[in-house]
Structure formats: structure tokens, C-alpha cells
Amino acid sequence: MTELIPPGDSNAVAAGGKIVVFSILQPSTCGECGAELPKGSLLRMEQEKALCLECADLDHLVFLPRGDTALTRRSGKYSTLSAVVLRFSRARRRYERQGVLVEAPALERAEKECLDDEAQRRAARERASHARERVDMQYVAQFSEQIQSRYPGCPPREAGEIARHACEKYSGRVGRSARAKLFDAPAIELAVQAHVRHRHTEYDGLLARGCDRSEARASVARAVAKVMERWSRE
Predict the structure, then answer these.
(1) Above 60 in pLDDT, residue 134?
(2) How deeply is 155 buried, as exposed, middle or buried, from its count of CB atoms within 10 A (0-12, 13-18, 19+)?
(3) Maximum Cα–Cα distance across the chain
(4) 135 to 123, 131, 132: CA distances (angstroms)
(5) Which residue has the higher pLDDT, 170 or 124?
(6) Which residues, at least 6 apart from 140, have a Cβ–Cβ distance to it below 8 Å?
(7) Please, what is the end-to-end C-alpha distance for the chain in angstroms?
(8) What is the DSSP string of 166-216?
(9) Of 71, 78, 115, 225, which one has the greatest count of Cβ atoms within 10 A?
């Protein structure tokens, strides 16, 4: 099994008690009929033996890629027999869900239902999106207020700019960290420091001229400290 499927999360094989099918990373051979299985083929492991879908009695199922939650949920609901498709990610060292195998009639029924109520589900998604956006705007505003509270000399326009940049969704920046969401002082300081470095020093120019990042930071450290000290006093 280790030659066919790289070691990873052992719980992936159980997949919540559901039948699991693997999208293989390298060519293999069915242990029952001897059929060649090229990379990307689907197989099921039974007692340490790789089986093609035909030998595993799963070849009548159709593949539904991940991505449409409603379609996947409904297809699984109407399919008497189904399987989860996993693939091992070498980069993340874990199994990742690729989709499901379901019965064709179940998928057809699910697709029809999804088409019938698409407008309702779209409206619900839009309402949820607007709600999340309101919450996010409120968080950015609070983050900006915290900046001005700690750095009263920071111009309001720049405080807002810092907050929007640091708190941009999915950016991975400091404003999206757990500490920042608690308005932790060091997290806010890092956001202000980064802004000052780029906007109030020659840091970007040094980088553009090929200066090493650590050397560039060291070169502008005093200038950054002066601006932040002035902002904290005024």
C-alpha cells in the first residue's frame, strides 16, 4: 500500500466510515485482474491489495468533482452507493478530497434540484456575503481606531489605509492573525511599522536597486523608529 499511496493521515483511509477511492500518484496494476492503472487512475485498497474500480464493483459510479457543495450533498443523499475520492498532496503531506463517486441517477436528480432552486440559493449566498462584508468592514474600522488610539499622530487617512491593507481578507497579513483580531498591541505595531517602512522611508528604492531585504530594513530602521515615535507622541 505504501508504494501506491504515500504515507499520510491514517484517518483518511477511514474517511468517516465511507468507502474511499484513491487517485494514484504513480502507475500501478490491479491486484485482481492485472489491468494496468496509469497515474491519475482511481483504485480501491482491499486488504493491502489495489483494485481497479471494475474489480471493486464501483465502475458504475460517476465522478463528481469537489466545488459544488449543494450538488455533492444532494448526490450523496440520493445515491445508495457512493465513495469519497482522495489524493495525497506531497506538498502538504496529507490526503485531500478530490470529489465523490455517485450513482448516475442520483447525480441527475441532484442536478435538476439544484437548477430548480438556484435562484434561492444564490440569494442566500448573497445575503451571507453581505453579512460577512459588514462584519469585515466593522473590523477594519475598529483596527483603524486602535491604530489612532496607540499612534494619535498618525493621520486618519493613513490609519485607514494601514487597517485596510493589514486586514485584507485571505492576504495572510498581520491584520488577519488571531492576535490582531484581539487588537494585540504588537500586531498593530507591526502593521504600522510596515506601512511607515514603505511610505516614509527609501526602503522600496533600496529593494529596487537590488539591496538585500535585511540590509534594507537595517538601513531604514532609524527613520522608521523616528516616525513611529512622533506618531505615538502627537
Answers:
(1) yes
(2) exposed
(3) 80
(4) 19, 6, 5
(5) 124
(6) 160, 163, 164, 167
(7) 66
(8) HT-TTS--GGGSHHHHTT-HHHHHHHHHHHHHHHSSSHHHHHHTT--HHHH
(9) 71
Grid cell for residue 193: 511599522
* Phi, psi angles (nearest 5°) of residue 140: -60, -40
Give the residue from 18, 44, 13 showing the smallest Cα distance to 31. 44
Amino acid letter, 105: P
CA 5 to chain centroid? 24
User: Per residue in 13-54, pLDDT tens?
Assistant: 444 458 999 999 999 999 999 989 999 999 999 888 899 999
Minimum mean pLDDT range among 61-70, 121-130, 210-219: 121-130
Residue 81, CA distances (Å) to 23, 56, 84, 98, 233 in order: 19, 12, 11, 18, 68
Q: 49-52 and 36-37: which strand pairing? A: unpaired
Secondary structure E strands in the chain: 19-23, 28-29, 36-37, 42-46, 49-52, 61-65, 83-89, 94-103
Q: β-strand 83-89 against 19-23: which pairing, if any?
A: parallel
Total H helices, total E strands in the chain: 9, 8
Domain ranges of the chain: 11-116, 123-233
- What would the pLDDT profile of 183-233 be if each residue is shown by its tens digit? 678 888 988 999 999 999 999 999 999 999 899 999 999 999 999 999 998
